[in-house]
């Protein structure tokens, strides 16, 4: 589990978005739609070979 208050969070997200081809780069927009509401979002899903 990750959250934005973790030290290095922004660096991690930037690196992950560079390395994982199918990483959802629009995730922040999806998450902030309902402030303070629980919003589970899939950021990356492994493609089947």
Q: How large is the count of helical segments? A: 2
Order of helices and strands: HH
| Whole-number mean pLDDT | 83
Largest sheet: none
Number of DSSP strand runs? 0
What does this 3D model show about the protein?
This protein is an all-alpha fold and 49 residues long. It has one domain. Helices cover 33% and strands 0% of the residues. The mean pLDDT is 83.
Draw up the topology in text.
Elements: H1 9-19, H2 27-31
Short description:
This protein has 49 residues and is mainly α. The chain is 33% helix and 0% strand. It has one domain (1-49).
Q: What are its keywords?
A:
single chain, mainly alpha, 33% helix
